[in-house]
Each structure stands twice: as C-alpha cells, then as structure tokens.
Amino acid sequence: MFFVDRMLGKLAKKLRLLGFDTMYINNIKEEAILQLCQQTGRILITRDKTLHRKAIKKGLKSFLINSEMWRDQLVELSKVFDLRKKDKIMMRCSLCNVDLVISSNEQIRKKVPLYVQETQDVFYTCPICGRVYWEGTHVQHIFEEFRRLGF
C-alpha cells in the first residue's frame, strides 16, 4: 500500500507495526522508487519535495510529509489515510514487512530467553528473518503510544 522513502525509516516501522504493507528501501534511486510505485500501485510517502513533484507529474499517488518526528508524521498521515486498522496491529514484521505466523513454544525455544518462554503463551515469527515477537511490555508501550496518538 505504501512506499516510504529513506528519510522516513521510523515512520515505515510504525506503519508496519500498525499493520500496513509498507515498503522501505534506504538505498534506492529516485527513478527506481517512482518505477516501483508505478508497477505496484503503492502510495509514495516522502519528505522530498522534488520527488513528490516528480511522482505527481507521473500521475502517481504521493503524500508529502512536513513533520520531522515520527509521531507527528503519523498524525499528519492519518489526516489523509485511515490508519485505524486495529485487527492488524503487531501482525507484520517491522523489519521485513511480511505477515507474522503463529509459532509454538517448541519452535521458538532456542530463540527467546527462558523467562519469556515461561511467561508468554503466544509467539509470532517472521517467515523471512526468523525474528520472534511476543506481547511483552514493549508491545504494551507501543500500544499506549498509538492510543495517545489516536490510533
């Protein structure tokens, strides 16, 4: 759905945590970004006015972010796009941008500390990078942060 340019890495990660398909590549040329958005139908999210103008000129959907901080950027973006997708929060890998899969305790045994295995019932794994996710206090903190921002 979104392509976030290299100036907005933190925003890309937060959009993924909110459950949105968000492509982020930090070493890609502008023409390749525009071509990728054109081929995939993704909406370009950028802070680069020149890139934004080029996208609009090519008939692509593009949104120019003015804010510098990710919290303000999310709020700015939410004024144009509906970012309230509560059923998908924390269901996408924040690094690889793919849907997470539920994993058994046996599958994550060697990947997470024993304390976490003993205190958590549900684990999710990224099928690409293998990163394991669970609802620890870090998840509660990001949920609180999203709630404060109105998501």
Topology:
Layout: E1 2-4, H1 9-17, E2 22-24, H2 30-40, E3 43-46, H3 49-57, E4 62-64, H4 70-78, E5 101-103, H5 105-108, H6 114-119, E6 123-125, E7 132-134, H7 137-148
Parallel strand pairs: 1-2, 1-3, 3-4
Antiparallel strand pairs: 5-6, 6-7
Helix pairs in contact: 1-4
Shape: elongated
Write down the CATH class of the largest domain: Alpha Beta
Query: H/E series, N to C?
Result: EHEHEHEHEHHEEH
Largest sheet composition: 4 strands, parallel
Helix content: 25-40%
What Rg do the Cα atoms give? 17 Å
Structural class: alpha/beta
The side-by-side strand order for the widest beta sheet comes to 2-1-3-4
Mean pLDDT: 93
> Low-confidence parts lasting 5 or more residues at pLDDT below 50?
none
Briefly note the CATH topology name of the largest domain.
Answer: Rossmann fold
Please indicate the percent range of residues in DSSP E strands (runs of 2 or more): 5-15%
Distance, first to last CA: 18 Å
Number of helices: 7
* Number of spatially distinct domains: 2
**Counted beta strands:** 7
Account of the 3D structure:
There is one protein chain. With 151 residues, the protein is α/β, with parallel strands linked by helices. 40% of the residues lie in helices and 15% in strands. It is built from seven helices and seven strands. The strands form two sheets. It has a four-stranded parallel sheet with strand order 2-1-3-4, sandwiched between helices. A three-stranded antiparallel sheet has the order 5-6-7. The chain is elongated and about 55 Å long. The model has no long low-confidence stretch (mean pLDDT 93).
